[in-house]
## 1
Amino acid sequence: HGQKMSKSKGNIVDPWEIMNKYGADALRLHFYMANQPGEPKNFDENDVDQVVKKTLLILMNVMIFYELYQDKAEASRIAPKSDNVLDKWVLALLQQTTNEVTDHLEHYEITEAGRKLADFVTELSTWYVRRSRDRFKSGGKDAGLARTTLGFVLRQVAILLAPFTPFVADEVYSRVRGGFESVHLEEWLKQNKLSVEDAQLLDDMTKARQEVEIALAQRAAVGLKVRQVLGSLTTTVAFDDDIKTIIADEVNVQEVRHGTETKLDTQMNDELKSLGLVREFTRQVNALRKELKLTIKDKVNLVVQVPDQLKSAIEKQLAEVKRAVIAESIEFSDQAQEHKIELNEIKISITLKK
């Protein structure tokens, strides 16, 4: 807290105590990211805790998510070819991060390098994985591409992290089956100039996320939850259809248009209200699945007692709802079921059968 550590003042921090509590890698990464080598270090245990929560735990949660869908093959050593815009984006961001981290390390700018890697881990989790969850669940070719892409990215991230967090890097590398006995036997990643297309995609995705941020603020201003489907969003940038789809999913609108200002259409009608109820229904069912400790591999047969209005709305989106709640079938019943749920003051009941 700005005072020099001193035995007489009794403010010395035992490094072994910190390492036993948070891990050696957390302490290493904290010192790398805090400020430049050679500068005085203001040590606060809370800062080490934040490194764990905001970087290392996030990375391990991505690792755990990957393992839910991982096959027995080693992680790819070559960037997969995918037409999916999220795969293209994360691979472009990985290459950009590799280039920047390498440049910083070659110029002894360890702090900037560490921060770039932490930023990438955040982007990987909060944008790529979160926006790709439905792809992983979907099965088929697209799910395979998402799995291969994430495995490749985790392998490369482990190599980039090796000088900063050697133990965590080795753990990730071994769990994705990186190829060698240890990540520390790998060669450093190669720098490659970004293609014009990749640079443009990174720029477009940044702008898309800015538009999303404005739209979500507009939602909050009028008290509309994100689960409530809305009609349209007008953006100031003319995006490709792939990015429009991502924006529409993130903001939860039916259509994304191009115009002169970012504006969310907040007008409601009966159809939109019904769609919002279906979204809330799937959220509640998934919360129940979690409460019952069901995994993504546990397909269920769903029996529901719902009012006619909600029944009709669910039937219109039956395939999507079944996929979202990982259900083999959805059966409607007039009889009360095992679990009681309330959706915007509408009382329903549900039974999940494995």
## 2
Amino acid sequence: MKDILVELSDADMEKLAKIYENHKTELPHLYSFFCNCLKAKKIGMTDFVRVYTLDDDSWQVDGTFIASMPNHGHDIVLHSLDSTGKNLMEALTKTNRFKYLEDPARNFTLFYAVHENFYPKIRQLLAEQKHKLHEDEFFDETLSLWVLEKEKAPKIPLDNQDVYVKHLQPQDLRIINENWKIRYPESEQKFLDFIKLSPSPGSGVYLKSNNQLVSWVVSSCFGQMTALQTLKQHKKKGYGSLVVKHMANSLAEAGFDCCGSVHLGNAASEGLITKLGFRKLFKCQYIAVYNKY
């Protein structure tokens, strides 16, 4: 039986990317996401993502899509420019493409940054379909997505005597992954996929004395900030601000605004990014659904 969703061709994905380019002021993370998707096709990472729409031309009007990234742990990004989510919910309800079956990389499927307009309906649908949600405190928590326009990217101070800042390298991912509280067996490889594709791989602060990485922010599937962290013994030294400034400048040079999500009530992170000039866009949720075996 034919599924309600069809995979977009590369040509149609370019059309969808153009639609979101026209909405990059309010949805900058999805503009950079589609740039990553197109780059994946161009450099031969053909299995990185599959973008699906309803089997009609409605996506050309309302931009409704569901993107599946199956490698190294199944991730899903979805959205619609129609705030009612009519076609989006029809797609999720009727499709058989996403069974959340056994995945050797990870025992859950992650819905990335679900917009507040659609979260209640998607949460209800998952409950009706008897999906069990992951209990980790990181998931199914409300966050806010923040943006810093590329024209406002702050300058990076050059007078620090103890550290230097540069782009992350693949060899840095081991320590980053070891300190990531929601790591899983293939999460380091997932990070590697992201930094291969993103306009900025992420940024790190290194000690001049021994070149140790002590603070970092990594690129996500959106090509934007995730996993901002400073090692405990190096906190309260301004290193988090340095890596955010560096990544914002790197993204700006590539023509992108800088985005990141922050848990509601995280006063330290909200204070940091507010001071740097970020503004709040909307609330979102990360939903992790246990795969069925």
## 3
Amino acid sequence: MMARKKQIFALGSAAAVLVGVLGVPGAQAAEDAPGIDVSNHNGTVDFEAVKADGQEFAFVLATDGTSFTSPDFDTQYKGAADAGLIRGAYHFARPGSGAAADQAQRFLETVNYSADGKSLPPVLDMEANPDGSACYGLSAGEMRDWIKAFLAEVKEQTKRDGIIYTSPSFWKDCTGNTEEFSENPLWIAEWGVDKPSSIGGWDAHTFWQYSDSGSVDGVDGPVDVNRFNGTVDELKALAAGSAARGSAAPRGDVGTAAAITRDEVIDRAKKWSDDPVPYSMENYHDGYRTDCSGYVSMAWRLDTSLSTVTLPDVSHPIEKNELKKGDIIGNLGPGTGGAAGHVVIFEKWANDDKTEYWAYEQTPPETVHRKLTYPYPGKDNFEPHRFDDITD
């Protein structure tokens, strides 16, 4: 990132990386959308040339701390959109010199964020203090509170979960590697590595700034270069508000996940039910496809959105009398792809005869919590399954 002037030692933290690289990291998938981030340091940018050079998005510095506004923000922000790039704005945080809510308010007034389908959620740039103590003189707890207050203001005014830009060293040193913000999209800055580090409980990064020394047509001199953890369509979905984390299907071994408790599964399912998510077989929310199997994948905290065909790869059949909260009931396996398959999350029996049960379900038009007839209304071929890594 760039604040008022280029401060290489602050970008991604010198403790984490010592030098940027020009090449695209080999671990990134070829379809991952590329983009840049710029500030007043970069001056006039020819965004038409940036777009022609294959870039798909651009982040632009809006504000820094309590008083600085980039003189190039309006021109750069509008220029990116006019060139057909997905755009985003970021605030360089100064936690030691002003209240979080005040900095957020000034940032949002400058950006005038609009849910226009071409603007990414507002970005909070959390990196080492370029002018003093790396953590701005704050304890890890104070830093977490500051971040929370800033993001709360963003959420209140834009209804979007703000993106967090940070480096592994800053996050670990200054927040205690907190997992408190793992539902916010992560933009990680880490140079000279083939794959960014895992930090703060995030299942996957959304954006990765992999170098501060990129060469892109339309920008004079070196520029920060990034990859979105997903396709161009998934990037557009994030801008449109139909995905909260970047990658629609965070990459890794298909279906892998850490062990999860039954209570955690229900809590995750309830989140979509309390604030109903529109059903779609194409859109994404919280990084997961918003159909029935994507919903189960989210609740089980898998690293990708499985289908009714592939859910058996991470689960096993059980008997009706073995059902517990967090298990699933559906028609799964070969031949159940697309509209042919369906699955629900079992919560509890609704009667002593076990002929009805309460379930969480992703179904048109949106997520519901409702009572169903066992095994499923009008369907005798639905069977119960249990996630291989669920614990009581």
## 4
Amino acid sequence: MSSTVPAIAAELRQSRGEPAQAPGFQLGCVTYNLLQNMELETIIETLESTGIAALELRTGQKHGVEPSLGPQERARVRQRFERSKVRLLSYGTTCEFQSPDPEVRRKQIETGKAFVDLAHDTGALGVKVRPNGLPAGVPYETTIKNIAGSIRELAEYGEPKHIEIWMEVHGRNTQEPKTAADILFAVNHRNAGACWNSNPTDVKDGSVQESFRLLGPYVRNAHINELYSSYPWREFFHLLRASGYTRYTLAEVPESKEPERFLRYYKALWQQLVA
């Protein structure tokens, strides 16, 4: 019964012509995959025209903002966002640390550090990394230690640069909330947190409350996806608001032939669900 109260209150406000209650957080977007084939300027113009507040740049896409950029190019990216209504929030990397091979992990860590430097130089807040499963034949505790140690090293590297490290709740087995929480508990660093990923595995008996209990204290960023799905979006947004979260929920959605039109509809539905 209590879970329906926010929805009922929102409907009453609308029927009276009253403004909806501000959720405390804003809507942003990930370039993966809706904006993957756009140049950076087109991305910014699209988000400005649709009132989308923040952006996560996924590596390997047409925008071209990568660690390979030189100092002048980085400065231009920073200046472009400073002139924009859109915040460059984060970089979405594919850095992953579950390998039992220390040389493989070292390469991934160094790539992550390069993105931390890029984030610092271009004015972003965070760098997203991920676990990507539990390797067969490796003890659970060993893999947790390997992932956590790698993320901790990145968090230590990013802290003096004021760049946070966000672990996406991702990968077979590692997207299980209990496993993700085990990793973050082992990381144990104030500059590292979770990127909530709105996975089906979050949902237990139609609710994300238990998963949010495990991961909520770590959440620094959130990816959301298809808002028409059976995922309990109203409950999730209510839990975010109640936790004091004041950042962004980033739309991570498939490509559209009409991205600007899609984003207008997406934002309208998001506003209804967060009210």
